[in-house]
Design brief:
Blueprint lengths: L1 H11 L2 H20 L3 E2 L12 H9 L3 H4 L1 E7 L5 H14 L6 E4 L10 H4 L4 H4 L2 H10 L2 H15 L4 H10 L5 H7 L10 E3 L2 E3 L5 E7 L7 H15 L6 E6 L1 H34 L5 H22 L3 E2 H5 L1 H21 L6 H24 L7 H24 L9 H17 L1 H21 L4 E2 L11 H14 L5 E8 L2 H17 L16 H32 L8 H7 L8 H6 L3 H7 E4 L2 E9 L2 H11 L5 E4 L1 H35 L2 H25 L2 E2 L1 H26 L6 H20 L4 H28 L5
Parallel strand pairs: 1-8, 9-14
Antiparallel strand pairs: 2-6, 2-7, 3-6, 4-5, 10-12, 10-13, 11-12
Length: about 800
């Protein structure tokens, strides 16, 4: 450690320049921080890259209602449904067009489209084998008689004049087979149509669907969107309420919560550590130790922001934790130089304390470095952030802080160290009592840790305001399962190939008897090859039956008073030239929104999307059915959570193993004796075990953020062990016990502040590390000395 001593001598007469340099760096860092782009969403803690989890997550974002705005209007029971629909249209028209694109309150606009007049023309290419069997049954004499009797009854009704041309064109009501296929485009299970609007079964709720150019991760844009919605809702009459349900509402809620938490956590941790300094250090010189983590956090923000754009708000919130990490190095240097004792003087004390400080920093850096291989960008950000802060704090603690600590006061630390040894030496039973209590705590934690489970539900990682949860629950209860469905993708380089795969999916689902709950384009947009096959089968049927059916229609028509040429439009349609259904035709029919939701085009080609119920048994069966079919991908939120749970478990095992190996190698290099290495590992092993046991006892579940917490405990716990073992090895008295106690308290204050956070991510890190550090500090200060042989 001669380099540290050499630097100390060089800087000793240049403290003014050193301080000026620090102030300049701090000013530059502050200017850079003021320009940071902060993303206050959970997206940074979601997988990216090319992993299966990342791939499935990206596909889940293609679900129609995951990308759309859903406005749910609810009326009090005394409100008439007509008044509700009037209010719905008023709200739709009041929504600003630049934020709410194409708001749709129902299929009313479709009544003016050529869909219903032209759909029958495409009957020959859309009817499948089952439809032809049904048509053949309707061509029997008894069926024809019943249909014409029903047609006559309709013509005698007041609306008969309107239906006249429809009956002439389709006396046997064959077009109903095609109209039924439109139901496969309906993604809202519990909906009925009234006056061209989406209306609930009970008549007390309506819907408005819209797109928006605002990204769901854009907190500023989300606020503008929700503010505009609130203004539009002001004109709603009494008794009618509206809720906007989309990812934007969650983004804004998380952004505002993280902002509030950041202010609260930084304030509480900063004030708490400052109070701790006044209570235990009682020196103006300690202010330099207090400023060390603030400077470290500023530099860590600058370094991380240069690496990642934008910076996650969760990473910024982690700054409060960094206060508890980086202050440890300063505290050990401060207590060693302020209260330590050795014969060679201040330089020897600095040289002695630099060894455990350096290795403590290296072990913490090694623990955080394993997060750089994470598939989660947020964990990689936390790794860079922590490592940059630790390196900054290490340099400041060893090169800068020694020049501003002041003269040595050796008696305090010496007496404290001697008192602790004296108590253990004089009262052997106290040593035994400490070890028994420690073993009891460890044993209890080991038993409780067996109940620990992994929860990979992404919603648990975001702040979910009660009002939004209630709104989403009301949406599901009223309209059915709109937003939580499994997705099946049919992907191919060309549209025809994708359509053929989409038909294969439809047939598989038909085999499971699930067509009623399926949303798909397959019935209305078959492949060109299938349409040609349908057309051939249609023509074959009519070649065999046309003459017979023509005679039956004429004779039965005469029976009910129809003219001989009444059904000429029907026969003309049968002989019309070939017409094929195309995506462009569906757009002209007013089905553009449904088409855009279910037909996707990207650089690799085309994707057709099918929505199915997210049921565990169905997903398992379909997963087996589609496993050998190239181009078909099944994505389920249930299965995604299972995959994410597996990934978390695998990552956790990998991170713990890598961090453990790195720490073990560094400890062997430092102590070179197995007993000393094992003693240094006691705090980290105890801390991790108590964290797991405490979580199991409290019923908490392991999530993405607890992985970070575990790495943090490893880094800090090893630091405590290194200092206590070095404390017993070195001739110099470095006041390590007191430094560990104070540094542990600062860490607990930092994490205690995180426990106050409302955001689950910050709260989760705070609570779990609080459990681990609460066990690691007493283990270092009390248990390691209890394992040492009696000193005389």
């Amino acid at each position: 450690m001669g380099l540290i001593t050499l630097c100390y001598r060089r800087f000793q007469r240049r403290r003014g320049w050193l301080l000026l340099l620090l102030l300049i760096l701090l000013a530059l860092a502050s200017w850079k921080i003021s320009q940071l782009q902060i993303e206050e969403s959970i997206s940074a803690m979601l997988p990216d890259g090319k992993s299966l989890v990342a791939h499935d997550f990206q596909l889940l974002q293609q679900a129609p209602f995951a990308r759309q705005l859903v406005i749910h209007l609810r009326a009090d029971p005394e409100i008439d449904s007509h008044d509700l629909l009037v209010a719905t249209d008023q709200l739709r028209l009041a929504l600003p067009a630049e934020l709410f694109k194409g708001p749709l309150s129902g299929p009313g606009e479709m009544t003016t489209s050529p869909l219903f007049n032209q759909l029958g023309q495409y009957l020959p290419v859309l009817v499948n084998a089952e439809d032809l069997q049904q048509i053949a049954a309707q061509l029997e004499p008894e069926e024809i008689d019943q249909h014409l009797a029903a047609d006559l009854a309709q013509l005698l009704q007041p609306q008969g004049m309107v239906l006249k041309e429809t009956i002439r064109r389709d006396p046997l009501q064959l077009e109903g087979l095609v109209l039924q296929k439109l139901s496969s485009l309906n993604p809202i299970p519990e909906v009925r149509l009234q006056d061209g609007h989406f209306l609930s079964r009970d008549g007390h709720s309506s819907l408005i669907l819209a797109d928006t150019p605002i990204s769901m991760t854009d907190a500023v844009g989300s606020k503008a969107l929700l503010d505009a919605f609130a203004v539009a809702c002001q004109q709603l009459p009494d008794g009618i309420q509206a809720n906007l349900i989309s990812g934007h509402a969650y983004t804004l809620a998380n952004a505002q919560t993280i902002q509030k938490d950041m202010k609260l956590v930084l304030l509480v941790s900063g004030m708490g550590i400052l109070l701790l300094f006044f209570l235990f250090l009682r020196s103006i010189r300690a202010l330099f130790v207090y400023l060390l983590p603030l400077f470290s956090m500023a530099m860590a923000l600058v370094v991380t922001a240069a690496w990642f754009k934008p910076l996650s708000g969760i990473t910024v919130g982690f700054g409060a934790v960094l206060l508890g990490i980086t202050i440890d190095f300063g505290l050990h240097v401060y207590f060693a130089l302020r209260y330590g004792r050795c014969q060679q003087g201040r330089e020897q004390l600095l040289c002695a304390v630099s060894r455990p400080v350096l290795f403590g920093a290296l072990t913490t850096l090694a623990a955080f470095a394993v997060l750089l291989s994470s598939a989660l960008p947020g964990q990689r950000q936390l790794a860079i952030f922590a490592m940059a802060g630790i390196v900054t704090a290490l340099l400041l603690a060893l090169l800068v802080l020694p020049h501003f600590i002041g003269p040595n006061k050796e008696n305090g630390a010496s007496s404290l160290r001697q008192l602790r040894r004296h108590v253990y030496d004089r009262i052997p039973s106290l040593r035994i009592a400490v070890l028994l209590i420690w073993l009891g705590v460890v044993g209890f934690a080991a038993v409780q840790a067996q109940d620990l489970k992994i929860n990979a539900e992404l919603r648990q990682l975001s702040y979910l305001p009660p009002a939004l949860q209630q709104a989403e629950q009301a949406l599901g209860e009223t309209w059915g399962n709109m937003r939580s469905r499994a997705l099946v993708f049919a992907s191919a380089p060309d549209l025809e190939g994708a359509l053929e795969l989409n038909e294969d999916i439809w047939r598989k689902l038909q085999g499971h008897g699930m067509l009623k709950d399926i949303v798909s384009l397959a019935p209305l947009l078959p492949s060109q090859q299938t349409q040609q096959q349908n057309l051939h089968a249609w023509r074959t049927l009519w070649q065999e039956r046309q003459a017979t059916v023509r005679d039956l229609l004429q004779l039965t028509g005469q029976k009910y008073g129809f003219a001989d040429n009444a059904f000429d439009p029907f026969w003309e349609r049968l002989n019309e030239p070939e017409r094929l259904v195309t995506p462009e035709l569906l757009e002209r029919w007013g089905l553009e929104k449904a088409l855009n939701n279910l037909l996707l085009k990207n650089d690799q080609g085309y994707q057709l999307l099918t929505l199915i119920p997210d049921q565990a048994d169905l997903i398992q069966q379909l997963g087996e059915d589609f496993a050998d079919l190239p181009g078909i991908t099944l994505v389920s939120q249930r299965r995604f959570s299972q995959q994410l749970s597996y990934e978390i478990g695998a990552d956790f095992s990998r991170f713990i193993t890598l961090a453990g190996v790195a720490v073990l190698v560094l400890l062997v290099l430092l102590f070179r004796r197995i007993p000393e290495v094992l003693l240094a590992l006691l705090p980290v092993l105890t801390g991790v075990l108590v964290m797991f046991g405490g979580m199991g006892w409290l019923g908490l579940e392991m999530n993405l953020f607890n992985v970070v917490a575990s790495i943090l405990i490893i880094g800090l716990g090893v630091d405590y062990g290194i200092f206590m073992v070095c404390h017993g090895q070195q001739e110099e008295h470095l006041a390590s016990s007191r430094a560990i106690l104070i540094s542990g308290l600062t860490t607990l204050i930092g994490f205690g502040a995180l426990v106050l956070a409302k955001h689950p991510a910050l709260h989760s890190i705070g609570l779990t590390v609080l459990l681990g550090i609460s066990a690691a500090v007493p283990t270092a200060v009390l248990v390691i000395p209890a394992f040492r042989p009696k000193r005389h």
